[in-house]
Amino acid sequence: MNGVVGHAATLSALLLAALGAVAAFVGGRRRDARYVTAAQRAGVGVFALVALTFVVMERALIMHDFSVSYVAQVGSRATPLFYTIISLWSALEGSILLWALILSVFTALLALSSRRQSKSEGEGDVDPQLPYALGTLFCVNIFFLLLISWPANPFRAMSPIPPDGPGPNALLQNSPFMGVHPPLLYTGYVGLSVPFALATGALLAGRLKPDWPRVIRRWTMVPWTFLSLGIVAGAWWSYEVLGWGGYWAWDPVENASFMPWLTATAFLHSVMVQERRGMLKAWTITLIIATFLLTVLGTFLTRSGVLASVHSFTQSPIGPFFLTFLGIVLLASLTLLAWRGNALSSEGRFDAALSRESAFMINNLLFSGFAFVVLLGTMFPLIAEAVRGVKVSVGGPYFSQMSVPIALMLIFLAGVGPALPWRKGSLELLRGKFRWPTIGALAVGVALAAAGVRAPLAWLAFVLAVFSAGLLVAEFVGPTRARHATTGEPWLLALWRVCASNRRRYGGYVVHGGVLVLAVGVASSATFRREAEWTLQVGATEQLGRYQVRLDSVWAVHESNRDGVMAATTVSVGGRVLTRLNPRLNYYKSAMEPIGTPAVRESLREDIYLVLMAYTADGKHATIKAIASPLVAWIWLGGGIMGLGALFALWPGGAGAPRRDPVPEPGRPRARPVSEARV
Amino acid sequence: MRWQQWAIPASGLPVVAFLAWGLTTDPHTIPSPLPGTPAPEFALETLSGDSLRSSALKGQVVLVNFWASWCLACRAEHAVLVEAATRYRDQGLRVVGVVYEDSRDNARAWMAERGGDWPNVLDAGSRTAIKYGLFGVPETFFIGRDGRILYKQIGPLDQEVIERWVPKLLAAGGAEAAAAPLDTFAEGRSAGHVRVSPESPTARGTARPK
Predict the structure, then answer these.
(1) Which of A244, A336, A460, A513 has CB atoms 3.0–4.6 Å from A203's, for a disulfide?
(2) Which residue of chain B comes nearest to A307, CA vs CA?
(3) Helix/strand/coil (H, E, C) string of A523-591?
């Protein structure tokens, strides 16, 4: 029953999406509001149908309806309810269903927002941009709905119906993080289809409305925020679950999420130049199209079995489908760019090398260079096999060597960019702004060297981060002080009013601050991590740095979906008990090897991380790996700050059109045109 | 659009063609020097206390299967092995189990519980495993009548692998097989490669530095 309803709902959604696409394109072409309205309604309808499909699948999972093929594949009566619910995205077919659901949410949102816009513009004139965008988004929907209705159909009927299933992939039922990381990441990944659709709509219509940068920027900010949080949550999951004490391995799937993040970040900056100065239009639109293409390429690479990866889904026949889709999108968007590119000529030009514009240009070069480096490293095994017929794997050393210099420059730019004025900066202005941050950074540098930091790259990262943070803080302090002086408001209120007066700008600076915190966490944990591995007798103690780890006991636990062996340990510092940690090994029915759950004590200063590697059957010995990672928690903290900053920038009210600062910043001339005061 | 402008979309075609080629490759095959070379010799004690020499198996088609009772994947694999041993026994297939890092009692209990009447040897000090360049268990070596390794399966065996290799090995007569170049048995890209099953610990281990 569930199978039939689910499949029928998928097919209906597919049909409606096809009708919606036709209506949207016809409506845009004929400028006929009736068709456009029909397409907008279809957008909401597709969402309703896909949501129904999703609910039916959840119902089948919760009911243990093993007549549905996907339930038979990932379900199990022994799995706890929470993991049964999230097992929807624990394998290929279900993850595409989640993808389709999120895509349909975005489609409905775009339909509703275009409806509001066409209402406010009046029924007379239909601007074809939004209908074309909606039509493009419908086409993306059609592809994913096609996948669920045929090659990756999760609703196939099982015959005979099995009495029970194996349960979801053991790694995915080992941590509640799996409930958070994939939906966040997918929301970001899939949401990037919307700016792509808007860009395609603009190209098809052959013109960019004046408010286009503002609109597309907002539609990109939302998925960008989710993608950022999803990537950080994925790193955290990897750290908390996989038991290797790391969080990023440059695995193809990680790269697949990181590359669009890089190009989307470049886009978010270049679109500001476009908004402000009318420059970089073709580049900006290329970036957003590249971002979408990278999401499709990443999905193709990791789900078709072309590259080996920890995340690789089981071999599936959807590779050719994804390749066809990728080919169509690639060729169509390149054709569109070639055809309409002329309409996107620059209005403004560069006035000076020392300006916000040039900082944005360097930023864009760095981010797109970074994306290229990651793309090359990810694709290299395939390229090497094609050219020389050899199997190679590209690992951490390549990526670290290439990315560290870029990252260092980006840390520097995160503070310098916001400090530079638009059009033309003067050296005196910079001297004033740079004085205190430079002194602060040098002081920190000397202190670090005195404290024994001997790793030059990490030292440089810390110093640059302090420098940039100083510049960012100054951007808050200056206007707040001026406001406090003129209005007499208390300091905190003045700060809040300053930030609220230009949410986009100050939210953006908070995001930059989060990036700096994250960068410090990465530099420190990658450079100063220490680890040791001991086989301990019960009662014995070993030392790692300042930590004494004592093995108290080894015991077994039995749970409904797994059996586990736990090592109880006490971690002390200087004879004082810091914490008790119980790393464990879990045996799942569906897994061939035991899966560990590390035990971590997190703190802002340093994490101590224990993994149970092995034990003797009599419970008298256990092999434990201990890892101490300084400042690793700063990565998650930085991710959280980035999310808060983005939320602040996106928050309705004052977030729409950037407004003029109420208070001039010190060091800038008071009298300037209104347009100058925007970010 | 002028013709020069078509160059931009045309540049996308090689990318698509390249990726399409990528679909035909299998990232899980990794090169191994073993296929094509003579199987390393061993003389080990069986579970029942007899001695088994690999040289005694010369001229027969042999599956050398490394396993352990603590290995979960070996459990799934065992049924496949039992079936293959039964089905191809009359045609001359021999199976030899090598118990890896495990005790005689565990191995005996395992065979008693799960069936299978082929000889199993104890690999003291894992010397034979080292000679065979073992990645992990289970791992199975397909050895022809000429004593050469023709294929190596990393990770659990399945029906498909058995059907692909065993009949071919059995069909090749003793003398011809010894003279036949390896290509006779090569199947596409599998020649000289071993396939790592995506589920095997090895595949995970290589993908995720630990």
Answers:
(1) A336
(2) B27
(3) HHHHHCCEEEEEEEECCCEEEECCEEEEEEEEEEEECCCEEEEEEEEEEEECCEEEEEECCEEEEECCC
Beta strand A621-630 with A547-558 is unpaired
pLDDT recorded at residue A38: 95
pLDDT given at position A351: 75
Within an 8 Å CB–CB cutoff, is residue B25 touching chain A?
yes
Strands A576-581 and A584-588: unpaired
- Report the amino acid identity of residue A344: L
DSSP, collapsed to helix, strand or coil, labels residue A310 as coil
Q: What is the pLDDT of residue A9?
A: 97
- CB-based contact B23 A337, cutoff 8 Å: no
- Assembly ipTM: 0.80
Tokens representing A558? 């039995």
CA gap B87, B106 in Å, rounded: 27
Gap between the Cα atoms of A440 and A193, Å rounded? 43
CA A12, distance to chain mean position in Å, is: 31
Query: Do B30 and A300 make contact, defined as CB atoms within 8 angstroms?
Result: no
Please judge whether B207 and A251 are an interchain contact, meaning their C-beta atoms are less than 8 angstroms apart: yes
A406 touches chain B (CB under 8 A): no
Residue B14: its chain A contacts at CB < 8 A?
none
| Partner residue facing B207 (CB), from A310, A334, A337 | A310
Q: For chain A, what's the residue count?
A: 679
Judge contact between A609 and A626, C-beta under 8 A: yes
Higher pLDDT: B101 or B30? It is: B101
Give the residue-averaged pLDDT of B198-207. Answer: 35
Instruction: Return the bridge partners of B153, or none.
Output: B140, B195
Q: Provide the 8-state DSSP code for A303.
A: H
When scoring A563, A588, A592, A623 by the number of chain B Cβ atoms within 10 A, the one with the most, hence best to mutate, is: A592
> What sections of A64-192 are H helices per DSSP?
69-74, 81-86, 92-121, 129-149, 181-191
Question: What contacts A85, CB < 8 A, 6 or more positions away?
Answer: A58, A61, A62, A179
A393 to B73: CB separation less than 8 angstroms, yes or no: no
- Is any Cβ of chain A less than 8 angstroms from the Cβ of B23? yes
